[in-house]
Amino acid sequence: MNVSLIIPYYKKYNEFQKSLEFNKCQYSLAQEVILIVDHPVVEGFSFFKKNYPEINFRIFVNQTEHSWRNPSVVINFGISQCKSNYCIIISPETILLEPNSIKLLIENTNENNFSVGRIIFLRNDLNFENNSFINKPLEINCELLKLFKYRNTRKHYIIGPVYYGSICCSKKNLNKVNNYTEDFTNWGGEDDDIRNKLIKSGITCNKIPEVCLLHVETPDEFENRFKINSKKNNDNIINNFVEIV
User: Fold this and answer.
1) Which keywords appear in this protein's UniProt record, sorted alphabetically (predicted)?
2) Quick check: pTM over 0.70?
């Protein structure tokens, strides 16, 4: 498929290993999977290239150590490197519940629109009838999860399903709006902002209800989902990445 998957990555090795096992068949459909590791590494990432030969991995590593930051600048680096006409942005811990998610997103995207599916945000300490959701993600009943209302509260363990997160868009249209805004350092803001910029430029949002993703995160990540801090990233970050495989 004429699509590049862009995965911004920061210290999520175990989470990525888990999601990759579920997503590998779909990832193999992409022209390339660009994994941007936003921290120095010594070893370990050649594992993915060696053990998943069906996936065309391109792995870039930032050689400069730093604390976690909003992935907008890392996503922009991935966009600048992609060889396909279309991009899908996906988090390393995201699991594709619908087995045709990549296919559906790319088939429903053209130069006049961008596509987005539904996503469920789930705390990894949630238990239901003594079975952990994180251990059996593909057995989650999406109809059951629809019963949980979307609420901005720390008391809830599930948010969604909502049309959010991973988008599929042409590289041309992303470049047209100067890609992701890099003014966000904490979680949040960049997803809403890129959609708003695309829509304001005349690109329509195509919602694909059949596409359902699962984003599993820690309790702290879940609670911090509603805390947004706008602070400019360092403009020289993009020069710190080196392709290793």
Assistant:
1) Transferase
2) yes
